[in-house]
Here is the input.
Amino acid sequence: MTILALTGGVGGAKLCLGLARVLSPEDVVFVVNTGDDFEHLGFHISPDVDTLTYTLADAANPVAGWGRQGETWHFMEALEELGGETWFRLGDKDLALHVRRREFLAAGQSLTAATAHIAQGLGVRHRILPMSDDPVRTFVHTRDGPLAFQHYFVRDRCAPEVTGFDFHGAASASVNPAIPFEQVTGVVICPSNPFVSVDPVLAVPGMGEGIRRSGAPVVAVSPIVGGAAIKGPTAKMMQELGVPATTVEVAKHYAQRTVGGAPGTVGGAPLVTGFVIDAVDTDAEGEVQALGLATTVAQTVMRSLDDRVDLARVVLDFLGAGAAASGP
Amino acid sequence: MTILALTGGVGGAKLCLGLARVLSPEDVVFVVNTGDDFEHLGFHISPDVDTLTYTLADAANPVAGWGRQGETWHFMEALEELGGETWFRLGDKDLALHVRRREFLAAGQSLTAATAHIAQGLGVRHRILPMSDDPVRTFVHTRDGPLAFQHYFVRDRCAPEVTGFDFHGAASASVNPAIPFEQVTGVVICPSNPFVSVDPVLAVPGMGEGIRRSGAPVVAVSPIVGGAAIKGPTAKMMQELGVPATTVEVAKHYAQRTVGGAPGTVGGAPLVTGFVIDAVDTDAEGEVQALGLATTVAQTVMRSLDDRVDLARVVLDFLGAGAAASGP
Here is the structure.
């Protein structure tokens, strides 16, 4: 069996770590959002791929939630002295990853191959696959105009009021050919931001179709718990988009996504089949089920490694894959 | 008046610092060897330009003789972990200079412009001019075959036995158009390696001619003192080339260089007019004068900043420019 886990950055990476502790490298594939990627200081920056890589390598910075453990900042200090851009922080160790990635890409390798080389160097045995090797760039539409994702997220600290999103390049991007759709027995949509972490992944032509073709159940874990986002701007975005920041609204967002309908219609089959609700939102279970989604209730706020592993087991059980899960 | 100082790395940079303390930015131009330059880890590395920049910025590492003061190496450690090349050491702070230079070059700026931006950022007011904005690459011919300079110098630690040199690209390179030859009143050839630091500078078409046209005296400071090189492989190279490692042989090397003769002939006017001998080599003065060079004797081993300033004053007096020298 093969579990496909669709993920963005920090929040999703927590569940991915739990899945990696429960499933062997043969049994799970992590498909990562690259809509956050951008070119900066001459480097290809791939924040979600790197967050997952560092997390699985047990090298992630547990406090910041991004970047490397025990990172130092002498490069940034010297860059500032030389008048360079310092709004996006690249640590001294993190730079090594970026220099290596540029070497691989400059040698004509794909982002997938570069990611694999780097993950291997950090001792990661599980498969980390960018959603596509083609450039997809998330733009956040705001009252101040459209912003490239990192300008919205990092430089402007999510302050501008969001009106919508688009994913430049998605329509012409090819889904990562290394994703083994035909072997997929279950799909997990990690508790990442539905709008800027998961939607870009599902916007890649062939992603939803490949998942649907596999016939596997697709379970999403709510990133909204008790009316607030566990991390990041999800709740703020929902409010700005005029929807209540509730787990029910997240469920609606996923329940509405269909695959196989004529382009631009709401026809086709629903993609998501199940939804994981946090225990504090138990009273929402009926509403979510009314959307046609199977539900299960769990402790979804992952503070400890045990929390991550426990949630992974709940999700796998929910997918009916728990029994097949072998230890790493 | 304008003094032109031709220099390589560490040894030459010491005298350049002395000159910079004695002469105002309007009165001196440093012309730097770029034959050591190479592309590495996706960066344009310009060791002699950077050594001089850091030296004039009082930011050079006084122990290593290259790189930055108070440097840290977290990038290199992480790069090694990721299987990157680590034989050429790039410190965390030094990386900022290289990232900035790549930004400037990628924006279509010349190496000269990039060098000026970086020097300004580090508070350097004196002019640092690469010998050319075109690529010139020094190759060291050895019994093991030809080696790119940094492979010979850094990776192989000058171990291979030298049989000769060539400067790829020199013939088609244009001399840096920013060098104000028409204003030059004196030229200093700093105590750098004659073969791999000074010869590449003089190999750029128009360099010798521009100097000769200025009619200015050209004074070389011997890098060989008491039969040994103050720093670097000069003495070892001379022995391997079958010439004694003496100040007289260095004087011969410079005395033989002529400008304006038919290509490939020894015709033309001699370029170098004077030679600075260390006090320990006073007995060689007659032999050097017999080569047609004016001589002066000085304390050329520069241990302290005062040594650097003192030698700068001697050289300027020798050039007859001392009187015109104004403080910075």
Residues 92-106 of chain B form the longest helix (15 residues).
